[in-house]
Design a protein that fits this description.
Structural class: alpha/beta
Strand content: 15-25%
Strand order of the largest sheet: 3-2-1-5
Distance between the termini: 35 Å
Helix content: 25-40%
Number of domains: 1
Order of helices and strands: EEEEHHEHHHHHE
Shape: globular
Radius of gyration: 18 Å
């Protein structure tokens, strides 16, 4: 379904199935959510699927995307059916390693991850502490134009740790305001 802006430009709004990798052991634990990207009514901002109480909805199987999408609001419903292919995997462990040890952000792992994390935090409604916001915005701004992570070492001795502090606060805020989709009932049995 094609949506158009008031000025008749075609809409870029779309829903994507994304995964977050929690750690690498055994291929990693993946959890999934749906992201509404370039939402028209929010000026092109992105946001995750949330339930009516504002909790970000996660699920453990990508095949649950259609069922999860039913929890969303009308903006998500406009894009039914749900996507079935994972558009992007955000690897938290790789993001952390790149921030603490990396020289380059090849593949925009950190940039994409920071942008996702900022969208997730915004969806929680928790105010991002100004120092963390400044740190993450500066990181994202720099990585938009260069994949060089070495600039962190030039800022100050604690720059990499400051980024990790900000990321850890964000992940905690998202965890507090998230829940997993309840398992589907099979034959009426929970």
């Amino acid at each position: 379904m094609s949506h158009e802006h008031e000025n008749s430009e075609p809409s870029l709004e779309a829903v994507y199935l994304v995964a977050v990798r929690m750690h690498e052991e055994g291929g990693g634990v993946l959890i999934y959510t749906l992201l509404l990207m370039d939402e028209d009514r929010r000026g092109g901002k992105d946001r995750p699927l949330a339930d009516p109480d504002g909790y970000i909805v996660w699920f453990k199987d990508p095949d649950e995307a259609a069922r999860a999408m039913l929890v969303g609001d009308e903006a998500f419903a406009r894009h039914f059916p749900a996507p079935s292919e994972v558009a992007l995997v955000y690897d938290l462990q790789q993001i952390a390693w790149n921030v603490t040890e990396g020289v380059r952000d090849d593949g925009a792992v950190v940039l994409n991850g920071v942008n996702l994390i900022l969208d997730l935090v915004e969806a929680t409604g928790f105010p991002l502490p100004p120092a963390y916001q400044k740190t993450l915005f500066e990181l994202a701004d720099s990585l938009t134009f260069s994949s060089d992570l070495g600039f962190l070492d030039d800022l100050c001795p604690s720059a990499r740790g400051d980024v990790m502090d900000a990321l850890c606060w964000c992940v905690g805020a998202v965890a507090i305001k998230s829940h997993f989709l309840a398992p589907a009932r099979v034959g009426g049995v929970p």
